[in-house]
Amino acid sequence: RCLAMDVHAAVQLARSRIAPHAKRTRLFHSTKLSAKLGCNVFLKCEHEQVTNSFKFRGALNRIRALAIDELSRGVVTASTGNHALAVSEALATCASGRAIIFLPSTANQGKVAKIEAYAPRVEIRQVGQTCDEAEAAGKRFAAENRMEWISPYNDRLVLAGQGTIGAEILEDAPDIDTVFIAVGGGGLVSGIGGYLRGAAEQGEKRVRVVGCQPANDAAMHASVKCGRIVEIESLPTLSDGTAGGIEPGSITFPIVQEVVDEFVLVSEDEIAGGRPIHTTARVARGSTTSAMALRPSP
User: pLDDT tens digits for 183-219?
Assistant: First the structure.
């Protein structure tokens, strides 16, 4: 049985679990990009999601699956901001529970302020300079205090929640050829790519999956290239939502190996010089618009 089939089944369950609280976001047809590239380009507008990020889907699926006693002991997580904010909002959908959030000292202060608004049920602890350092501290704390650790990516329920994006894309544009997906630890691309590949195994159209990473922080690309999880130098990147390495034994790695057809590495100049894509009154750029889909022009 291929891993994608397991992801596909988990996504189906996640859809029903998160439906009361998460938004079904638009698949926006970009006429400007379509004209420029000579094909139909669609953007999955996860900047319109609750907390303005796809991360809410995964965090919500994970937290809503917890037992009452697990919630009462509390949850612990770490991130550069988006996942932490998602966990905070997901916890707010529950009648009880508390969260301790580990953030690097370099975390975006705007995101930190948003997380602070969830006090007193959510407590912030800033540790280290990088997401990896904050994550290591958070995992130790969770183990020592018998609290639930909620990984930003290395969790089957989290990646299944992110995969609900793939289900929506396939329903809204069943004839797409290719999806381009932002990659960090691999939770998003495993969820979406796994769902799409699983759907193809069940007779739907085979969709090509392209993983997109900043060249300054491309641990997943390097690991897939080597055939094993490797550590690489992590340089600063404007795409902070995809920053960080891959922990040993990550469940996302073999899924990425199975479902990603190609990687594209993006330089900092390309990220900085990219034109903002205006959708209504909002701007989607960086890792907030989680996926782009292409289909041929008629």
Answer: 999 999 999 999 999 999 999 999 999 999 999 999 9
* Token pair recorded at residue 259: 């479902």
β-bridge partners, 12: none
Distances (CA, A) of 56 to 36, 37, 86, 220: 32, 31, 4, 22
Distances (CA, A) of 282 to 47, 49, 254, 270, 288: 8, 12, 36, 21, 11
Residue written as tokens 């995809």? Answer: 242
From the list 246, 185, 202, the residue with the least C-alpha distance to 58 is: 185
Q: Which residue has the higher pLDDT, 141 or 236?
A: 141
Instruction: For residues 101 and 160, give the distance between their C-alpha atoms in angstroms, rounded to a whole number.
Output: 22
Model-level pTM? 0.91
CB 244 within 8 A of CB 80: yes
- What is the C-alpha to C-alpha distance for residues 238 and 240, in angstroms, rounded to an integer? 6
Report which of 165, 178, 176, 158 is spatially closest to residue 264, judged by C-alpha positions: 178
Q: Which two tokens stand for residue 187?
A: 């939770």
Cis peptide before 236 (omega within 30 of 0): no
Q: Residue 250 in contact with residue 185, Cβ under 8 Å?
A: yes
DSSP characters for 212-280? EEETTS-HHHHHHHHTS---------S-GGG-S---TT-THHHHHHHH--EEEEE-HHHHHHSPPEEET
Please answer whether residues 216 and 271 qualify as being in contact, where contact means their C-beta atoms are separated by less than 8 angstroms: no
